[in-house]
Amino acid sequence: MGQIQVEKDLGGIEGLCVITPAVHGDDRGYFMETYSRRDMEENGLYIDFVQDNQSMSAKGVLRGLHFQKSFPQAKLVRVIQGAVFDVAVDLRSGSETYGKWYSVELTAENKKQFLIPRGFAHGFLVLSDEAEFCYKCDDFYHPNDEGGLAWNDPEIGIEWPGIEGEYRGTANAEGYSLEGAALKLSEKDQRWLGLKDTFTF
Fold first, then answer.
1. Is residue 83 classed as helix, strand or coil in its secondary structure?
2. Catalytic positions, please?
């Protein structure tokens, strides 16, 4: 019997899935399988994951939008502490949903996992005081292969929850806030350009 429930092609975007594991709990606590190749393949998901990563971020941290240029990765992401607003943007050349985005709120409580295929940009905003974020990748990390997009590119139009501020033509976080506190982005993430300036087909 499978231990996961899979919602496929979310937002009409082929390949995006939310995976919810079966949680077995009683008054002692709970148990769940966080990953099973067998269950994934029974749901038509054939991905050879080779690396697990984990990060911790404080509230108001926004990471992204990141993608890999020459060595694209599929990712299976989840939160084990706190809550994040997680986003994927379709960057697949020729895709009918190119440039479209979809989001999922991932929390330690809902235990949902977001499957993001190769060819997508990915980012997340931390909604809780802290969040621990885990993800599996189907390729190893390749230095100097990371690309990115402006998190606030109006052409993509991501509706980040709770963020206030006015777009001034760049990814600079100055003037943006979440619940009154300044938004926190890395220097690199504030230099990415928009979709049209990053890709030309």
1. strand
2. 66, 135
